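Suppose you are handed a protein chain with no further information: no name, no annotation, nothing but its sequence. What can you learn? This example shows the usual starting point.
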Amino acid sequence: MLQIYQTQLRSRLMLGTARYPSPAILAEAVRAARAEVVTVSLRRESAGERAGQAFWSLIRELGVRVLPNTAGCHSVKEAVTTAHMAREVFGTPWIKLEVIGEDDTLQPDVFGLVDAARSLCAEGFEVFPYTTEDLVVAERLLSAGCRVLMPWGAPIGSGRGLNNLFGLKALRAHFPEVPLIIDAGLGVPSHAAQALELGFEAVLVNTAVAQARDPVQMAGAFAQAVEAGFAARQAGPIEPRDLAAPSTPLIGTAFRG
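A reasonable first move is to predict its three-dimensional structure. Written in structure tokens, the prediction is:
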């Protein structure tokens, strides 16, 4: 089981809800992914509008937990205000905190992120910060009150996978007790499996599923990849070697002189 704040989860795959061809396909994809948590942008879905009401009805039918996010916010004030609105609308202290600092890569503004996280944690929010793999930033976020970190694998929607393996491995090694969830940039199920093999607790995927030719089949593929990656990590993978190591020992092997 995966424990995030005071909540225990069976699934290590979280799913975004944007850009699906239809609500019906979204619902099928969530079921195929066996996801227990879905992220939702308050800016995209307004609970007070007819479309928003239909969306929330769908989410309630799926029985999943909602992780609202502050997608599209570029300042501390904007992110904090959006978080307060999300808590009122969804009735949850959970918030996926995004403070975007650069438009081309959608890289987090880590300075604003720390300030916003400190403010929200002090007000009782359970913050999931979308951050980079920077160790100093991670330490500041944890000191601000965050109990989970969501480092990016690559820029949002890029599908490039885990761009900085050295940085991500260092982050995992430095904070062995902190739940780390890879967020953004995963393109195919093997990227998700790799993240779990490296010791990350979970992944969050949106574009790679929603924009696939068959989102439902892709959601199922990611579910299998996450399970395989976690199982491989638990099994204890061998360390890479520079030289060959024969799988069949030579001692006791018959040979012709």
